[in-house]
Design brief:
Blueprint lengths: L10 H8 L8 H9 L9 H10 L9 H16 L4 H10 L4 H7 L9 H13 L6 H7 L4 H13 L2 E11 L8 E10 L2 H13 L15 H21 L1 H14 L8 H20 L4 H10 L3 H26 L11 H19 L7 H8 L2 H5 L3 H6 L1 H14 L15 H14 L2 H13 L10 H10 L5 H8 L18 H4 L7 H17 L58 E3 L5 E3 H11 L16 E2 L1 H21 L1 H4 L10
Antiparallel strand pairs: 1-2, 3-4, 3-5
Helix pairs in contact: 2-4, 3-4, 4-7, 7-9, 9-10, 9-11, 10-12, 10-13, 12-13, 12-15, 13-16, 14-16, 15-16, 16-20, 20-22, 20-23, 23-24
Length: 658
């Protein structure tokens, strides 16, 4: 029967009509929630949808699609309402009963969490994008995998096309109403994207797993490692990094050139905190993940470089304003803290991703051409006021090889001399205590992977030491007659033994020859900076000419310093980095598995410290040591969070100072 002439086809009428069908079809109400949201607040339509449909125990009346439609309607209304109307939506949600919570339990990790996605979207909009990770985990009953998949799903839906029913002709006396399906594109609002950025950080924070002061048991650490490995697997499989990068780019950088606000800086820092925690705390596939960040995602092009460019311009503007009014102390200004946190977090991700990066990859060449260092040095007072940012710039350029003074620039944008001079000028602006922190971070920090055996790192050391040894100076200048004291890859022109070293055909032959060389090395002075190492013939492994992923190995045996904060047994014996996958030799030495593998592939089957025969089959994974390292990391992180003022403000500079 057609409606009466004076009947308003609002939300109440359409809900009554939809309730006559089985299962209930709310397609028309979904469209109405976007075109005429005011109709839903005129009566008890909201509470009726929740009580009659969302809480319905019969699937014949309300199937999964019906419940999804109810959540979609409520989330659409929450996006376009505020004040009293949002309170009405929250009041309607209070009527959700236990049956709906049990219905949500049917969705588990591994499947598409459609109900959880819409529930998270609804809660975020209802509570003004202030949802915490703990709230999401409560929604997912503590299942972190399901929670992360829910975030991934929402990011995927950030730009989706759906078919919606729209009215083409209104019904009237003697004329039937006409409806048609239209394709509509939906894009999530920027505050929601920032909310999701803050949520992912909580999945990898140790304090979300362990209470402050809690005694860490071996089984708890093993469970923590398993959780991190599972989250890393989901991140790689779902291409979460790519989706986060594109969502942030579309929401922050593609639509406006304005300065970023405080919550936007904080959200960017949270994304990088998530990415870095995954690298620091996971125990498997970390090398795959590191390469994935640089080469397999648009992270650098769409998130890191655009943010650093915008951040550098904002820092230069703040410095200009401060200079005009005679206020140069950046650290005391509240507006600078979020900016510094975001810049520092972005640089840390770049340092991790650029270590041993294949130089022939397009993104690596792009990173060198668009090196953010020059832009940040346009605000020298800002960089000098934040010594951690300056130290990260030094590490980044060392990993990228951007300070190789003897190398011909690949493009006109690359000028290592000018870049090094700019860094030196800022270094002169840093006070004494801050200089010590910079030197300590560059020389001794083991948390971040750093190529310490490259010409660029030698140039950094020369600058920090206000001059270097004669050998280092010759090396940095590229003297053809000088032997490199840093890189053991280049054959020595002055070492006759190394020039004519034959290939070894057996372990015994290699061992006997290495022992003889050790005795000769002890009598010869001066010693090499690398220590008493076997002088084997350095040969590049056979690779295809078209292999773009080959990286010329750069390895230096690390020398323990008394001032190191990291216990020596937690460091790789070759490069001094904090061990992630410790591998122990029969002699009891411990190396990072990826590093010793690279050493054995390029130097021969000989231990770099003892000169004894060694193969990959001789290495044993030291899981007990790995558990001790994670326990030490977590204890140090908890101590830092309890004592660091910057951590309380969301600046995690100190959290990775190990």
């Amino acid at each position: 029967m057609p409606p009466r002439a004076n009947t308003k086809l609002g939300a109440k009428w359409q809900l009554d009509a939809a309730l006559l069908s089985r299962p209930v079809d709310l397609t028309a109400l979904v469209s109405l929630s976007q075109t005429s949201p005011d109709d839903f607040y005129e009566d008890d339509t909201l509470s009726r949808m929740v009580k009659l449909l969302l809480n319905a125990e019969s699937d014949k009346k309300a199937d999964k699609d019906t419940r999804l439609d109810v959540l979609t309607i409520l989330s659409n209304l929450a996006a376009s309402s505020e004040g009293k109307r949002r309170d009405d939506i929250r009041e309607a949600l209070d009527n959700v009963n236990d049956f709906m919570e049990k219905y949500l339990e049917k969705e588990s990790s591994g499947s598409e969490p459609e109900l959880h996605k819409l529930m998270l979207l609804l809660l975020a909009r209802c509570f003004e994008y202030s949802i915490k990770t703990e709230d999401l985990l409560e929604l997912c009953r503590g299942d972190r995998a399901l929670g992360l998949e829910t975030v991934v799903g929402l990011l995927e839906d950030g730009e989706t096309y759906t078919t919606e029913l729209r009215r083409k002709q209104a019904p009237a006396m003697g004329r039937m109403g006409q409806w048609e399906h239209r394709l509509v594109c939906h894009r999530h609002e920027t505050p929601l994207v920032l909310q999701l950025c803050r949520l992912v950080r909580g999945f990898t924070l140790p304090q979300s797993y362990f209470a402050a002061g809690e005694k860490l048991l071996e089984k708890d650490i093993a469970s923590f490692n398993d959780e991190m490995n599972l989250l890393l697997e989901i991140t790689l499989k779902s291409r979460l990094v790519e989706k986060l990068s594109l969502a942030c780019y579309e929401g922050l950088f593609a639509v406006s050139d304005d300065d970023l606000k405080e919550d936007e800086h904080r959200s960017i820092a949270c994304v990088h905190s998530f990415l870095q925690n995954m690298y620091f705390y996971a125990t498997s596939k970390t090398e795959v993940y590191r390469r994935h960040l640089l080469c397999d995602t648009p992270l650098i092009q769409r998130l890191v470089l655009p943010y650093l460019e915008r951040g550098a311009a904002q820092a230069a503007s703040l410095q200009c304003h401060a200079d005009s009014y005679g206020r140069g102390d950046f650290k005391k200004r509240a507006s600078v803290k979020p900016l510094a946190a975001g810049v520092s977090a972005s640089l840390r991700t770049l340092v991790v991703a650029s270590f041993r990066a294949p130089p022939t990859r397009t993104v690596v060449a792009l990173l060198k051409r668009l090196n953010p260092t020059a832009a940040l040095l346009e605000a020298p007072s800002f960089v000098a006021a934040h010594d951690r940012i300056f130290a990260l710039l030094l590490l980044l350029n060392a990993n990228m090889g951007a300070l190789e003074l003897g190398r011909e620039a690949e493009s006109k944008d690359e000028n290592p001399h000018e870049l090094l001079h700019g860094l030196a000028r800022v270094y002169q602006m840093i006070d004494g205590d801050a200089r010590k922190r910079v030197c300590r971070t560059v020389k001794e920090s083991g948390a971040l992977p750093v190529a310490r055996d490259t010409p660029s790192f030698a140039a950094v050391l020369q600058m920090l030491n206000d001059g270097a040894s004669a050998a280092q100076l010759e090396y940095v200048r590229g003297s053809p007659g000088a032997r490199s004291p840093i890189s053991p890859l280049a054959p020595s022109d002055s070492d006759d033994d190394g020039a004519d070293t034959p290939e070894y055909t057996s372990r015994a032959e290699a061992k006997a020859d290495s022992l003889r060389r050790q005795r000769d090395a002890k009598e010869a002075k001066p010693r090499s900076l690398l220590g008493d190492l076997p002088s084997l013939e350095r040969r590049r492994p056979e690779v295809d000419d078209d292999d773009d992923d080959y990286v010329e190995p750069a390895l230096e045996v690390y020398k323990q310093r008394q001032s190191d904060d990291v216990p020596p047994e937690f460091r790789c014996a070759i490069n001094g980095h904090l061990l992630k996958e410790p591998a122990r030799t029969p002699q009891g030495l411990v190396f990072e598995r990826a590093t010793i593998k690279l050493w054995l592939e390029t130097r021969g089957s000989v231990c770099p410290l003892t000169g004894e025969a060694l193969t990959l089959d001789d290495l044993i994974d030291d899981r007990d040591l790995r558990a001790r390292i994670v326990s030490w990391q977590l204890a140090k992180t908890q101590k830092t969070l309890a004592t660091s003022v910057s951590a309380a403000h969301g600046d995690e500079d100190d959290l990775y100072d190990f």
